Amino acid sequence: QDNGFEQFVINYCNEKLQQIFILLTLKEEQEEYVREGIQWTPVEFFDNSIICNLIENGTCGILAMLDEECLRPGVVNEDTFLGKLNQVCAAHRHYESKETQNAKRVTDASLPPRCFRIHHYAGKVTYNVTGFIEKNNDLLFRDLSQAMWASRHPLLRSLFPEGDPQKVSLKLPPTAGSQFKASVATLMRNLYSKNPNYIRCIKPNETKAPMLFTRELVLVQVRYLGLLENVRVRRAGYAFRQLYSSFLERYKMLGKKTWPRWAGSERAGVEALLAELPIPAEELAYGHTKLFIRSPRTLFDLERRRQERVAELATLIQKMFRGWRCRIQFQLMRKSQIVIAAWFRGHA
């Protein structure tokens, strides 16, 4: 209920993580249809980059103005910081305070005077500016870093690399907010360089009790985790997509024209294969390099047909092998019978 500087930077990190989730799942999902030339209606989703920019902008962001107030000479307190926020962010639709509400003639008793409110992706959060400047100025000065770096303990030396005399800088030590911002930027670079897979954990109830499902709590988490947008994008588009080569290699035994070999192009082979199957045309879309299937039921039907066909082919292979083995054995017995009969007639 009472949010300060710590909760502010934590929520900033959550906004950045939500941003990469949106870019890597929802936005890339829709861009793939554009790349493949698939026509469909784009799904609108909330891009929280505007909130991230409000916090981390290098000139007029909240963290930048907080650092400016911490380094400004003269009398500095939270009131001057909040006043600067009200001047710079007054027109931002995701920022509000008592002053901005008064300017718009809005009466809101839930917003105290020494607070500002940010409309985060997951909802509105009110922050009390008390302690912002003090906590942001929690600096480790150079002499302390050099003293820790001079320690004989290798772990302590590794924790304070800035204490190395060869790396001494005359600049002021970075503030807590700027350090956190740099750490978040490093985390984002690492995540963007990888191919992340998301596991979304849902807390079913507040008491951690088994067999208890609180519908309202789960609904809030599903909405704020961005799962509704993800489901809408999947439902509006195609649930399954695969390269033509991979699809043809897996399901070619279902078509008379494609089994056992297909001599033409891979896309033509997939089209010829699916033309023989009773699949509605609206369930399929042919991209430049991939096949798109709308409903999971269609994919399940393909898998069922493939399992039945594999069983038939296995039976056919066994039948041909048994026939070949019996024929070889019969030919050997017939040859032996002729030899035996010839020798018996000669003896007689």
Automatic annotation (TrEMBL):
Domain of life: Eukaryota
Protein name (Swiss-Prot/TrEMBL): MYO1A protein
An example molecular function term from Gene Ontology annotations: actin filament binding
PANTHER family: MYOSIN, UNCONVENTIONAL MYOSIN-IA
Pfam families: Myosin_head
Family named by the database record: Belongs to the TRAFAC class myosin-kinesin ATPase superfamily. Myosin family.
Actin-binding: annotated segments: 184-206
GO cellular component: brush border; cytoplasm; microvillus; myosin complex; plasma membrane
UniProt domain Myosin motor: residue ranges: 1-307
Keyword check for Secreted: no
Gene Ontology terms: biological process: actin filament organization; actin filament-based movement; endocytosis; sensory perception of sound
InterPro entries: Kinesin_motor_dom_sf (IPR036961), Myosin_head_motor_dom-like (IPR001609), P-loop_NTPase (IPR027417)
Keywords: Actin-binding, ATP-binding, Calmodulin-binding, Motor protein, Myosin, Nucleotide-binding, Repeat
